[in-house]
Task: structure prediction
Amino acid sequence: MQDNIIIFDTTLRDGEQSPGASLNVPEKVEIARQLARLGVDIIEAGFPVSSPVQFDAVKQISDSVDVTVAGLARAVEGDIKAAYDALRQSDHFRIHTFIGTSDIHIKEKFRDDRYGKSLKAKRKTILQMTRDAVAYARTFTDDVEFSAEDAGRTDTSYLAEVLEAAIEAGATTVNIPDTTGYTMPAEFGAKIATLREQVSNINKVVISAHCHNDLGLAVANSLAAIQNGARQVECTINGIGERAGNASLEEIVMALKVREDYWGSTTNINVKEIFNTSKMVSAFTGLIVQPNKAIVGDNAFSHEAGIHQDGVLKNSQTYEIISADLIGKSHTRIVLGRHSGRHGLVDRLKALGYHPSDKELQKIYERFLELPDTKKEVFDDDLRMLMGDEIHGLPEHYHLEALQVTAGTSALSTGTVSIKTRDGVIHESAIGDGPVDACFRAIDRALNTDFRIESYRVRSVTAGRGAQGEVLVRVRKGDRVFMGRGISTDIIEASVLAYIYALNDARAAEDEQEAASVLPSDIV
Ligand code: KIV
Ligand code: ZN
Result:
């Protein structure tokens, strides 16, 4: 085959649609910069029409990186124009427009009679909408991608007709999404092969695959697509994304690299940056990578069984097909101590892929110095957490000034909090079912809030007694969900910080009136 496979990264669009993974704009920009260092060919930065924050993120990302940035748009003029407006300042950008093509999508999403009364009539309308959308997008850029949403479940002959129309109208990439993760690898591969036979103008464009992981087959399906002629794959770091996620970038890239003898294809990915990118995405989204995850899981390079350990010591290749070093996971534990100084901190942050502004750096340095004496060593993961906190940079409506708890096996748990708000400092106490509950109740009293705690997770950032604890809370008010994260060597404090963070997030969303309801009309 010997061609280059184009890596289209959609961590910041489809990946961000992971339940509970909401990134703010500065975090997205930092991740985009890291994706650029990783060497992805295209960054899908968001869905500009869906909210002002999405619009702003796409705009800022396209200002910040020297990689082609794509913006998503439904096959309607308003969406396409919004994508263009978010990207227009860039020299080269892509508009990615999509429409549902499977019978179930057509029947349900285009129920209204204005799209036609029968399935046949509705299919005709979708064909026309495809042509119109692609042609309109082409008036703004010569790089237009068209996706036939739910192509995995779309009748292949109709899919061929839609793709042919999209190419005729000027699409330069046609994407075949397995939106629901329904297809089997051989079936998906065969679909691509059939399309190559049936779509008369297919040779003019790049064929792309976009696979979801509902049956755990997203990577296998993407590779089957490559085997049958796809030359672009859409994927996300750590495989994050809607429901069970998208195809994992690192797994596809490493499969192509480790088995180059088999594939004969390469990518532009600088694989040394894989580990840092995975860690950054996990730290910013709060989505923890499962330990046994291929390539980037904590256990991916650990050998537990005696026979394996013995073999690896004699020759690592006995049980290892990839070295940790290859993906940038260094075996040497570089540890900072409180005497490492500012330079040591900056160098280490840079090595981890972070480029903090002077202001952020100053704050991180202060927090680094504030770490308690019990914490003698500061590990890479500690720094990643500090960076995550600083870059997040939410406006602080509420700030924890002080916290006091009483707890014990035979005592009532009580929590007292002092919270600074724009109107002054509020002090409140409450009793609760344990110290964390007591503090959350005290906060609710102080701020007059009544969020439902949907999930509460605590984990140790690194090992050892002085380890920092990371707390993630997910709270709900009505149909809106907010995430909060806090870190501290004291897990009660981390819990309170996480809860206050979520409340700040909710408050910021209220202020910005950032609402998904901005999405107009009945098609999604
Ligand atoms: O899964 C999907 O179909 C998508 C499209 C918008 C490409 O994400
Ligand atoms: Zn998708």
About this structure: The first strand starts at residue 6 and ends at 9. The CA atoms of residues 445 and 516 lie 29 Å apart. DSSP finds 17 helices and 14 strands in the chain.
